[in-house]
Predict the 3D structure of the following.
Amino acid sequence: MLDPQVTVADFGGRVERIRPSVPVSEEELIAAAQDGDREAFDELVKRHYRRVFTLARRLVADADDAHDVTQEVFLRAYRSLDKFRGDAQLSTWLYRITANCAATHLGKSSRHRHDALGDDEAIVDERPDSNPELLADAASVRERLDLAIAELPPRLRAVVMLRDVYEMPHEVIATELGISESAAKVRLHRARKKLRERIFGQSAAEEES
């Protein structure tokens, strides 16, 4: 369990565990969840839900579908947590599951809508900006990038998000999307070209001239 000092209380016949309100490392939470501790798994969900949903939202481009994908991700994670051995970070493992779930969802869906995201759905960037003077220009570029990514076909959007935003290696992307590594690289090249043309209004040929 998480803490050997956990106490047990009886609330009118309902037994509940009371945990001390101290920070718990992710490694401890994973170990406890693998031992069957649902509270530990719930805490892991709380810590990773936003990032998983953000990725799902980008991959399927529809908020309702993204919620469905996110739920499926954590359901699969719960069922497979005993197989997680810590070879990669939990977040990376969850991103792989998200890519797989999104690909499955898109394969079953007949809609494949490419609706642009709203103004309040900006790309999540966890890294702080060290140069405030560039924020205005960055916001403008991010807005154009936001729209450009949303307009990509789902197959291209998935690869560029997994590679350029979540920094997953080509071989992992290929495995999770069920394509060859060379196909993943080709899709990434096409996606980047489309984004460059959409954002900067120039083709690769113009760029090289």
Notes: Confidence is low (pLDDT under 50) at residues 1-12, 110-135, 204-209. The beta strands are 7-11, 14-18. Residues 38-60 form the longest helix (23 residues).
